[in-house]
Amino acid sequence: MNFQEIISQLETSKESRINYYFVTEEQNQEIYALLVHVMGYMDKLYLVEVIFTVLKELLMNANKANAKRDYFQREKLDIHNPKDYEKGMEHFQENIILKWNEQLERLDGGNFYISLLMKVEGKSIHFAVENNAPITQEELARVNKRIEVAKNYNDLSDAFSDVSDSTESAGLGLVLIQLLLKNSGIGSDKFRIHTNDKLTRATLTVPDVTTPLEITTTLKTKILNEIDGLPPLPHSLTKIIQLCNNPDSDLNMISTEIEKNPALSADLLKLSNSAFFANRSQVSSILQAVKVVGLKNLRNLLYVSGVRKIMDGQYGKMIDVWEHSSRCSYYARYLAAEQNHTNKFADIIAVSALLHDIGKFLLLSVDRSFFKKIETYQRGTDSGNSTLLEEMAIGLSHPQLGALLAEKWEFPPDLRVAIEYHHKPFLAPADLRDLVEIIYMANMMCDFQEQKKGFYAIDKNLLAKFNLDNIDKFSKEVKKVETLYKSSNV
Q1: pLDDT value of position 236
Q2: Fewest Cβ atoms closer than 10 Å to its Cβ: which of 84, 136, 396, 436?
Q3: Domain-embedded: residue 403
Q4: Per-residue pLDDT for 276 more than 50?
Q5: Which of 178, 206, 234 is a domain's end point?
Q6: Domain at 409, CATH number
Q7: CA-to-CA distance for 66 and 135, rounded, in angstroms?
């Protein structure tokens, strides 16, 4: 896929067409990388996740439609004959959907195709997904029914609780598209499905001006009230933070204050003796530890200590969130060293990774079962960014909630940015993008290790930047870092 050639075609208002026999997860990864270029050119980077999610759903539907027709042909069934259709669909799930990895080999080089088309007109951009498989009347009725049903939903929580029809994997797909387009400000009226006796074509127009809807839900109101009700960081910690921020502070005075807090003292000694600071001799005193880690690192450790005390006190010990965050912190420090950014980010990288998911505490505390359902829906797939589903469910994602908490507790700007943009590093301010990209990659590597995400869900551009743009190389690196992480916790 030649990104520059495609951009050149769009600049001259020519239609760009990319053809496939079967769209793989690896090709979806390339499409995402392409969209970062295209939507950047259109000055609409903030819509990358929405457009990608819609296009990926349409491409998957085209894959399934072509696989179905190939299956019917092999079974010598007429897809337009109601009796044959019913007979074919009896075993479609077990013969095709449950053997999905075999479909690429069946369709590659065959008679069916899928095309992704793009064209710029003025300040609008048109997308289309086309495949040479006309929709049957039954399929069209199912599509129209799903689109009509979607009009009744204001958020994803309604859809999750209501959509139960999984025939042909119908379920949430079209509902998801309608909600995304409506809530993003693009508008569900900008999406159309056309069919004739030769092909099916789904079109999407992204207008120049998009005004996102303000999603108001019961959950959102509850969570925002929850944030208002959270206590400030403990006074004993803010007192030390103020001392750290004062350039005239006396290190002995700071050390004395830390020694009053046994848990904080233990964390500081552990940090000062970690491989990240590479000390030749064992650090055994608090004063020595303060000198080793520095005041900025100490201040950030205080934020972690304060947040953990509040979150564990309010919501109990959410071990799975903290375990993921601890792993992510180790991975981030490893990546910073590999990228020669250790000195540049030494005072922020570990804590940014430790606190990147603090917004999840709020989501899980108000409706743990629902958000676990979202995680299960995407678990182990290359489905991309789960924060979109959170936004559609309540109107806020966990990075946005984390940013609100960071603001409440007066975190420094670099820490706030790392928390807010760790799923969308391309939107981070340019001066902090390297930091956010490390947190993003560390998080994705951890998700891969924890089997929450697949390799092809990761931004291809960033994989190349980290020299991990090969699944074998990536898997080997994750295995290596995980081994180091586990040995560091023995």
Answers
A1: 86
A2: 84
A3: yes
A4: yes
A5: 206
A6: 1.10.3210.10
A7: 10
Mean pLDDT over 399-424 rounds to 93
Q: Residue 188: which domain range?
A: 3-206
- The answer, yes or no, to whether residue 41 has pLDDT greater than 90, is no
pLDDT of residue 157: 67
pLDDT in tens, 300-332: 888 888 898 898 888 877 888 889 999 999 999
Domain count, the chain: 2
Mean pLDDT, rounded, for 105-131: 93
Pair (182, 239) in one structural domain: no
pLDDT of 294 over the 50 cut: yes
Kindly report the CATH number assigned to the domain that includes residue 88. Answer: 3.30.565.10
SS3 for the chain, per residue? Answer: CCHHHHHHHHHCCCCEEEEECCCCHHHHHHHHHHHHHHHHHCCCHHHHHHHHHHHHHHHHHHHHHHHHHHHHHHCCCCCCCHHHHHHHHHCHHHHCHHHHHHHHHHHCCCCCCEEEEEEEECCEEEEEEEECCCCCHHHHHHHHHHHHHHCCCCCHHHHHHHCCCCHHHCCCHHHHHHHHHHHHCCCHHHEEEEECCCCEEEEEEECCCCCCCCCCCHHHHHHHHHHHHCCCCCHHHHHHHHHHHCCCCCHHHHHHHHHCCHHHHHHHHHHHCCCCCCCCCCCCCHHHHHHHHHHHHHHHHHHHHHHHHHHHHHHCCCHHHHHHHHHHHHHHHHHHHHCCCHHHHCCCHHHHHHHCCHHHHHHHHHHHHHHHHHHHHHCCECCCCCHHHHHHHHCCCHHHHHHHHHHHCCCCHHHHHHHHCCCCHHHCCHHHHHHHHHHHHHHHHHHHHCCCECHHHCCHHHHHHCCCCCHHHHHHHHHHHHHHHHHHCC
Place of tokens 């006796």: 197
